[in-house]
DNA sequence: GCAATAGTGTCTATCAGACAATATACC
DNA sequence: GGTATATTGTCTGATAGACACTATTGC
């Protein structure tokens, strides 16, 4: 247990006398992509309300990017993990604690923060509309929910020496107090022995830092996971109808789904209750809850 | 474009006079889980060689963890992204450049490095056995390939207030110059409104830092992606038989597969060539290469 | 009764698991 | 010829897409 190194020093002696070198160190932040689903009023008393996917943004009150909208986030402290920093940020911004939280990706582009060297470890959180009431307008900082739209714009494929490069551009639109938009490209370089994917911000109107890229990445992760996990259930209130669940899937995937197939697919993810909707102007619907087993 | 903040300062003035605060900053490193597949000699001239999944480790020549085995890695420099640092590390350790590289996860547990506050952004690289010749024993540092085994040991499920906690323990064994082993647990806490997964090192014999956890995470990612992407093809040489490809899938998944079903499944991932194996002691096999389109 | 949604049935094409049958070099 | 692998065929059950049909409430 007390091996000596080439200077004849034990590990505990080494740690005792260890002084961090003069290497330059980055600041590390967490940035949170917090999603929720809200309901829009319907035209007719009979129609169901429309669902919308929303993300929480905060207007920057100081330089840099003064007045632009940014993801909630902040510096990671020496006594906490990035996970803990994310939980802390989430609680500060929304007041909620127990929600779905997942590390997304660590962004480290040079110059992504004009002030200094900052690496961001990004997270995605899913909040159900029940909890949503708790927050909003709690402290001075201006926070707002923006409706998310993320659609493919264009696709290019270029053949190269030993493979090809495929570039797909997406339009990210965020509608809230203001209308923000950005174009993000995803470039996949496929060669015989390698495959690499890169995200780039092509244009950007109203979002701070590289946050358009982070939001795009989060949406892609969310869309991917919705298909093969029960992740979308974290966007639902305690009780919900299958039609509401389907609407959430549809608004996340930006795609219409077939009712029968959808119900088969989610059958194992939900649990029947004996509750029903009432006064809907049409046939009542059974309420379900998330199925926890397995 | 030149908004003034509450002190009446423009963004460029702000950046001009910006001085990083006295916040403590972490060191950021990249750690690389570099996988390859090698062939073991067969008993009989007729039998095919057995494939093995291997990972590259480096014996630590100084404190802390002197003499233990660690993942290749190093500090991220101020003029590079974590991706670039990973590529640099990979080249330094193996001499190869164009390989599959994917960011895995950012580990930030308190005390994961006994010296100081270090956050590690981990990457997985896949190298094919062709390229493998290039490296090994190039510089003074002792690097070696270890055969990987990662098997479920035990599963527990505990019911709690509003959900359950499922703990699965895995045994990680690494066989190379020495025999290293660790037990890593994956704990999933499922409650009505949240789901969280956590990895923990239960025991650890011979691996430095929290690298057992990183390797476990990498294997799980690799196993997951093998099923629905062409990622495994990055472990293959330029030309290969379908049986060899199947063996790679089997050694990665630690599971036998049915031949007919396997061939149907990978049909679109590979491209026929007119080449065949020779002198095999049995019927020759057609050689395939990675199919690049789509 | 009618509008609007809830919920179920079923046909078909596709695909994975399972197993079998046939094919072919090389010693 | 015999061994060990290569390659294809096919049966079956499960599943997704597509569409249609029936059910039920509140006004």
From TrEMBL, chains A, B:
Location of the Nudix hydrolase domain? 27-173
Name the family. Belongs to the Nudix hydrolase family.
Keywords of the record: Hydrolase
The record, for InterPro entries, names: NMN_biosyn, Nudix_hydrolase, NUDIX_hydrolase-like_dom_sf, NUDIX_hydrolase_CS, NUDIX_hydrolase_dom, WH-like_DNA-bd_sf, WH_DNA-bd_sf, WHD_NrtR
Is Hydrolase a UniProt keyword of this protein? yes
Q: Name one GO molecular function term.
A: hydrolase activity
Say if the entry is tagged with keyword Hydrolase: yes
Source superkingdom: Bacteria
Which Gene3D superfamilies has this protein been placed in? Nucleoside Triphosphate Pyrophosphohydrolase (3.90.79.10), Winged helix-like DNA-binding domain superfamily/Winged helix DNA-binding domain (1.10.10.10)
The identity of this protein, by name, is ADP-ribose pyrophosphatase
């Amino acid at each position: 247990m007390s091996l000596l190194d080439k200077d004849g020093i034990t590990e505990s002696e080494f740690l005792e006398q260890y002084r961090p070198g003069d290497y330059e160190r980055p600041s590390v932040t967490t940035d949170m992509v917090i999603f929720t689903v809200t309901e829009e009023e319907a035209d007719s008393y009979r129609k169901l309300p429309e669902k919308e996917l929303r993300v929480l943004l905060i207007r920057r009150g100081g330089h840099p990017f003064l007045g632009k909208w940014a993801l909630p986030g902040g510096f990671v402290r020496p006594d906490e993990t990035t996970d803990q920093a994310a939980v802390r940020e989430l609680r500060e911004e929304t007041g909620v604690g127990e929600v779905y939280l997942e590390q997304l990706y660590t962004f480290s582009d040079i110059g992504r923060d004009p002030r200094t060297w900052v690496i961001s470890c990004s997270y995605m959180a899913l909040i159900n509309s029940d909890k949503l009431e708790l927050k909003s307008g709690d402290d001075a900082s201006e926070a707002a929910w923006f409706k998310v739209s993320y659609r493919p714009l264009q696709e290019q494929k270029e053949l190269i020496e030993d493979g090809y490069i495929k570039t797909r551009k997406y339009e990210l639109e965020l509608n809230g107090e203001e209308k923000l938009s950005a174009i993000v490209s995803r470039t996949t370089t496929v060669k015989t022995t390698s495959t690499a994917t890169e995200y780039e911000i092509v244009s950007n109107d109203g979002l701070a830092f590289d946050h358009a890229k982070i939001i795009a990445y989060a949406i892609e992760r969310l869309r991917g996971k919705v298909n093969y996990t029960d992740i979308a259930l974290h966007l639902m209130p305690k009780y919900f109808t299958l039609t509401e669940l389907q609407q959430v899937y549809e608004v996340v995937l930006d795609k219409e789904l077939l009712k029968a197939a959808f119900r088969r697919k989610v059958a194992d993810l939900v649990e029947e209750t004996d509750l029903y909707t009432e006064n809907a102007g049409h046939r009542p619907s059974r309420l379900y809850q998330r199925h926890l087993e397995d």
